[in-house]
Amino acid sequence: MIKRSVKIELGGVEREVKFTIAALEELESLLPRRNVFALLSSEQWGITDIISAAYCGLKACDRKISRQSTAQWVAEYAAGDKGIYDLRLRLLAAIGLSGLVGGEKSAFENILNTLDDSREEEADEAKK
């Protein structure tokens, strides 16, 4: 069964990121091009795009989340071992897994599996 949300450790806590239709609508309102499909097809996301996506996806599960806290958590994530590219891919997967933007949801599940597998391999290498 394909899940509809993604767990991401932000701010030292594993948090759920989920994109409802309201979250996607809010995300579009925050994007310069006001189009989530343009964001999904973009090879590179700006920092503002990443913070906006994280904020909207987090807020769908926890209405108390602030954009300021989200920005701080994104900065910490980007400075950590996983980096900003990993976060972008996880947010992309969360948007795709919503089932609201078309496409094959299993492809987004594959993105998450690849990220998680590479993290496990890195952990195994560090133990050696």
Description:
Helix content is 62%, strand content 9%. It has 128 residues and is mainly α. It has a two-stranded antiparallel ribbon with strand order 1-2. A hairpin with a 2-residue loop joins strand 1 and strand 2. Helix 1 packs antiparallel against helix 3, helix 4 packs across helix 5 and helix 5 runs antiparallel to helix 6. The protein is globular and about 45 Å long.
Give the gist of this structure.
The chain is mainly α. The protein has helices at 21-30, 36-41, 47-59, 67-79, 83-97, 105-127; strands at 5-10, 13-18.
| Biggest pleated sheet | 2 strands, antiparallel
Low-confidence blocks of residues = none
Ends: how far apart? 34 Å
Strand order of the largest sheet: 1-2
**How many H/I helical runs?**
6
Mean pLDDT: 88
What gross morphology would you assign? globular
Q: What is the CA-atom radius of gyration, in angstroms?
A: 14 Å
Q: What structural category do the secondary elements indicate?
A: mainly alpha
Strand content: 5-15%
- Record field, number of beta strands: 2
Order of helices and strands: EEHHHHHH
Helix fraction by DSSP (H/I, runs of at least 4): 55-70%
